[in-house]
């Protein structure tokens, strides 16, 4: 008999088949693995961490006209079908609703360690070499320009402005990616983020050299 985690993996793989490459099953798998790596250093509920990591992007609002209610609904229906306790379901849904970078201004104080772990894992997958690849992939998906020296980053966007932003891919580094290192919650998250952050800085230096044909 398959475990709940095995069933969740199967469900997510099926649900995200054909998804945009930065938010597909492989993104989920990396976040799941990173979550387990960080969870090993914290006192936490492993089941909540793993289920949340696997279900956190089951219906990313970016691909559903900004609707943030779809993912919790899909996750609840699936977890109820797995006979997961209501207490665990509520914790998983709380993480799904509060994990996003764009929602950081609305998140309540005193976050549970499980959310901190999965949030760190999700943010770590947004930086470094993988983060660079995902960012350019999504920029291409939206047909955003790679870079425009005349367009400056918007550093204090509201949630609504962030959701509607169609800025350049390079500006996204300054609007989000380079901010993530200092938003890590856990010691392990900070450790893993530093190397990837430094890699992005090196990439940007090289990008500008090549752009300017130095």
From TrEMBL:
* Domain HD as annotated: residue spans: 24-127
Q: PROSITE patterns of this UniProt entry?
A: HD (PS51831)
SMART domains recorded: HDc
Extract the PANTHER family matched here: HD_PDEASE DOMAIN-CONTAINING PROTEIN (PTHR33594:SF1), SUPERFAMILY HYDROLASE, PUTATIVE (AFU_ORTHOLOGUE AFUA_1G03035)-RELATED (PTHR33594)
Report what the protein is called.
HD domain-containing protein
Write down the species: Chryseobacterium lathyri
> Upper taxonomic classification of the species?
Bacteria, Pseudomonadati, Bacteroidota, Flavobacteriia, Flavobacteriales
């Amino acid at each position: 008999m398959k475990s709940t985690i095995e069933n969740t993996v199967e469900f997510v793989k099926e649900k995200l088949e054909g998804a945009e490459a930065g938010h597909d099953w492989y993104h989920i798998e990396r976040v799941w693995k990173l979550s387990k790596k960080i969870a090993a250093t914290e006192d936490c509920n492993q089941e909540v961490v793993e289920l949340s990591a696997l279900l956190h992007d089951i219906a990313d609002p970016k691909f559903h006209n900004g609707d943030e209610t779809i993912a919790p609904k899909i996750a609840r229906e699936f977890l109820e079908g797995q006979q997961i306790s209501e207490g665990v379901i509520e914790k998983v849904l709380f993480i799904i609703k509060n994990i996003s970078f764009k929602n950081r201004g609305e998140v309540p104080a005193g976050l549970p360690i499980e959310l901190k772990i999965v949030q760190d894992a999700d943010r770590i997958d947004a930086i470094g070499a993988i983060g660079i690849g995902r960012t350019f992939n999504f920029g291409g998906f939206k047909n955003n320009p790679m870079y425009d020296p005349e367009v400056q980053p918007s550093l204090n966007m509201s949630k609504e402005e962030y959701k509607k932003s169609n800025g350049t891919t390079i500006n996204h580094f300054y609007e989000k990616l380079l901010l993530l290192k200092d938003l890590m919650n856990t010691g392990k998250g900070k450790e893993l983020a530093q190397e990837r952050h430094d890699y992005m800085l090196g990439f940007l230096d090289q990008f500008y050299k090549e752009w300017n044909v130095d």
